[in-house]
Amino acid sequence: MPPGLYRAIKLVNKILLIKKYHVLLALLKGFRNGAVYGAKVRAPHALVTTFLFRSTSMQEKLRTIVYATYTHSRNLACFVFIYKSLTVAQRWLLGCARQPQAFLAACVGGWLVFGTNNSINSQINMYLLSRVLFGLVRLGTERGLLPRPAQDTFPFFAALIWGLVLWLFEYHRHVLQPSLQGSMTYLYDDSNVWHDITDWLVFNKPHQKCKDSQ
Predict the structure, then answer these.
(1) DSSP state letter for 202
(2) Full-model pTM
(3) What is the number of alpha carbons within 13 Å of residue 163 lying toward its C-beta?
(4) d(CA 145, CA 138)
(5) Helices (DSSP H) in 95-193: which residue ranges?
(6) How many C-beta atoms lie closer than 10 Å to residue 189's C-beta?
(7) Residue 208: which pLDDT band, with cuts at 50, 70 and 90?
(8) What residue ranges do the domains of the chain occupy?
(9) Cα torsion 174, 121, 119, 36: sign
(10) Percent of the chain topping pLDDT 90
């Protein structure tokens, strides 16, 4: 390692351990972690769904993947930075940490970052909704606000969820998210149509060459 680079890294490491800079550095690392985690989560998902469900050019597919990954990464990074900044500010103003501070800071961050109605934010918000509902039920059970079930209720939960989603898909599919509509169309509608073994077993739909030859 060049001596100049070694000295620079040593200086940076020394600064990182200075206590008075900890809050600021925690905000920056939170931004960094949000960006990295957002990219890690979105890139594989965008890659799979784009190549599975989009019949566009390779350039358009790559553009879609990059945009989705960038948007998710940027939004999560900005939210983490806003949330941590507001919790620090409230703690400094009030002199202590209280539970409503986290709720208020996250509400502001959610409004500013995830309040725009687009496909990325919609997926993230719905993902969190299911986790929040699960968590609230468990918290209510722990606090004695909800009765603790005498038997495992997960099979009933699974039956209700799948019953409702297939009912909505079959008779009111317009109310479902486009991505969910696409997935369920692939599973339940496309499996009813084929022309020969190529689009019965190998492909979901016949390729253009096959169509032209028919």
Answers:
(1) I
(2) 0.83
(3) 6
(4) 10
(5) 99-114, 119-142, 154-172, 178-184
(6) 13
(7) low
(8) 3-115, 165-214
(9) negative
(10) 73
